[in-house]
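One record is set out below.
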Amino acid sequence: MVTTPTPVPKSRHGVASSDRPDPIGFAVSMLNRLAGTEVLDRLGLRKQTERAVFETTRAGFRTLGKVGRTFGRKGRPGGSAVRVPSSAEKGLFDLTPTEDEQMLVDVVGELAVEVLRPAAEEADEACAAPEEALRASLEVGLPILGVPEELEGISTERSAMAGTLVAEALAKGDMGLAVACLAPGAVATALSLWGDDEQQSTYLPAFTGDDVPAAALALTEPRPLFDALQPQTTATRDGDGFVLRGVKSMVPRAADAELFVVGAMLEGSPALFLVESSAEGVTVESEPSMGVRAAALGRLLLEDVELGSIALLGDDRGEAYRDAVRLARLGWCALAVGTAQAVLDYVIPYVNERQAFGEPISNRQSVAFMVADIGIELQAMRLVTYRAASRAAQGKPFAREVALAHSLCTEKGMQIGNDGVQLLGGHGFVKEHPVERWYRDLRAIGVMEGGVLV
């Protein structure tokens, strides 16, 4: 019989949390409010009765960017920004979560199981995340996970490791809904990492308040052999400002987003730009996809979009942009690990209970070996992803580690999805079982660059 693999140990650094700065203690106390809310008990998540939403998404739409709030400029251009310090190096290769991080994972995991997974099938069909799920993610503080405490966030050190654990836990519920929930936090984290005083003062208060805007990272482009480090979207200087031209694809919650972080080529180097959805020349088109459908992916058209001097996020030499790509890939690796874990957790009881020729099919070597391979590859994916996240959190170079993790999670993630469908036989092909959706979602890892950032 196939048995459930041993859980990952609970302590990453081998030291008590009281012996080190508490990076997410405040987050844990806030996240625990989830247990007292009605969200977990109110599982009558919004039925997608508005068939017009689905029909519009299926047929396609083209609309101007969402006209939302006005982000009034504050702070000083190029002023002193607040940065979260890197985490301390402990000297041991021990990547298991600390007690605080495990508490965070437990609460977010409860959100994934109790809220995201029950809503996943209808959200996938409708190509939209239900408001209840999005509201629950705000209640547990996901948008401010990477924002410094000084700016009303909950981080006292780099959040790459905590963000990776959160993304993995959410993806066990549903990858598409996880992306929709994480998208605003990706923009808030980018502002925390690379924004100057003016940018942080102007935009971050919206993410730390009660009315958090939809926002998204837009790096991917709809062209063959797309290289995220060489975008074809262009930015040209125009006096003190910039003009953006180009197309971005697979942007989460594009139709609802009020703020985008867009990658574009500026004078031969890739750079990041803050683009408000209400800017003239911003148009959004629907872009229904094979997987990650609940994230409501859309295409962002930038037609001579004029931006002010505040728009350039980080440097114009490509350093911030390259780090954004690496952290985004790291986020997708974490999502792949979580979804692959969901596949393994689902197929183990299935093959143990499914009978053929008078015995469980897990008694067949071919079945048992396939499940064992999933477990082995999953642990490899997890370890390389955690290793990259740990180096990012410590402020060390992590380009090589992210490249290894992204390559492994792309290849083995698709294989795990395919094997999950194969183990269910005919049941794997029908929507009665969620494995077919997880297979479609796992195929996105190799083509998605933006959307999430840990």
